[in-house]
């Protein structure tokens, strides 16, 4: 089974680039930029990676972002992820980044986007990995912050394909961001939102009805609402599921309880992704491997999940077809 997972070319659709910052690189960048981290060693830092919920993780994640200062830092961060993606036979990746977590620290908007874009562009040429970048709004901030940032995103629309919504979910329902999402949709951006990770099925419904999302990030809790689940399946709206994240943030208590099989049985277009691999214990193939072992995924189910990763991507249909054909030539 692990050979199959390794062998299949796949797409990754839910990965926060700041969440791929490994402790080793964090310390290296801190040193390079003369930043004092509150932890004395990598082991001391790693000991903090034991979370009870999303917020406990986010507090550590935002603190880690402080070492990212220059365009080269963002380049190095992206390059490190791309090397892992290559090892996992990822051939297309759609990554998130959080512009506000950098602009709020006084890092100009173009520093992050230019560094990230240059790395992904180089990787496309040198590693053959295609990519899209999705800029996420931090939902714990007021919508006005997102509206204030939006012109910067528009200015860089040649590098940014889509808009997302992430950070603390509870108490920050999608309805809070209708204005900025309506504008983004009007301007032709793809739109996605984290919904139903910790928040209720109602938030998933709002993301669909009020934000008109093209994909749902996580979406686990839609399963609490039978009608909503059937509607999502009927529409073919994809879910970007993140098993190790679900385990580490206690969305599921044990990987054995992960609802992936239920999602597939209900006809949902589920995909497998790593979310924040440096914090949650594994890149995309590790997510497939641990999930497959825990719930007993069949080869057919793994194949379907990988197939879904291309179907649910924002690649043009003609390119999707090429990837799907290559996949079918193997399976
Ligand atoms: O897993 C996550 N959930 C919500 N927001 C995030 N921002 C980075 N990772 C996450
Ligand atoms: Zn996420």
From TrEMBL:
<feature type="binding site">
    <location>
        <position position="14"/>
    </location>
    <ligand>
        <name>Zn(2+)</name>
    </ligand>
</feature>
<dbReference type="GO" id="GO:0006146">
    <property type="term" value="P:adenine catabolic process"/>
</dbReference>
<dbReference type="Pfam" id="PF00962">
    <property type="entry name" value="A_deaminase"/>
</dbReference>
<comment type="function">
    <text>Catalyzes the hydrolytic deamination of adenine to hypoxanthine. Plays an important role in the purine salvage pathway and in nitrogen catabolism.</text>
</comment>
<dbReference type="InterPro" id="IPR006330">
    <property type="entry name" value="Ado/ade_deaminase"/>
</dbReference>
<dbReference type="InterPro" id="IPR032466">
    <property type="entry name" value="Metal_Hydrolase"/>
</dbReference>
<feature type="active site" description="Proton donor">
    <location>
        <position position="197"/>
    </location>
</feature>
<dbReference type="GO" id="GO:0005829">
    <property type="term" value="C:cytosol"/>
</dbReference>
<keyword id="KW-0546">Nucleotide metabolism</keyword>
<feature type="site" description="Important for catalytic activity">
    <location>
        <position position="218"/>
    </location>
</feature>
<dbReference type="GO" id="GO:0009117">
    <property type="term" value="P:nucleotide metabolic process"/>
</dbReference>
<keyword id="KW-0378">Hydrolase</keyword>
<feature type="binding site">
    <location>
        <position position="16"/>
    </location>
    <ligand>
        <name>Zn(2+)</name>
    </ligand>
</feature>
<comment type="similarity">
    <text>Belongs to the metallo-dependent hydrolases superfamily. Adenosine and AMP deaminases family. Adenine deaminase type 2 subfamily.</text>
</comment>
<dbReference type="InterPro" id="IPR028892">
    <property type="entry name" value="ADE"/>
</dbReference>
<dbReference type="GO" id="GO:0043103">
    <property type="term" value="P:hypoxanthine salvage"/>
</dbReference>
<feature type="binding site">
    <location>
        <position position="276"/>
    </location>
    <ligand>
        <name>substrate</name>
    </ligand>
</feature>
<feature type="binding site">
    <location>
        <position position="194"/>
    </location>
    <ligand>
        <name>Zn(2+)</name>
    </ligand>
</feature>
<protein>
    <recommendedName>
        <fullName>Adenine deaminase</fullName>
        <ecNumber>3.5.4.2</ecNumber>
    </recommendedName>
</protein>
<dbReference type="GO" id="GO:0008270">
    <property type="term" value="F:zinc ion binding"/>
</dbReference>
<keyword id="KW-0479">Metal-binding</keyword>
<dbReference type="InterPro" id="IPR001365">
    <property type="entry name" value="A_deaminase_dom"/>
</dbReference>
<feature type="binding site">
    <location>
        <position position="275"/>
    </location>
    <ligand>
        <name>Zn(2+)</name>
    </ligand>
</feature>
<dbReference type="GO" id="GO:0000034">
    <property type="term" value="F:adenine deaminase activity"/>
</dbReference>
<keyword id="KW-0862">Zinc</keyword>
<feature type="domain" description="Adenosine deaminase">
    <location>
        <begin position="9"/>
        <end position="321"/>
    </location>
</feature>
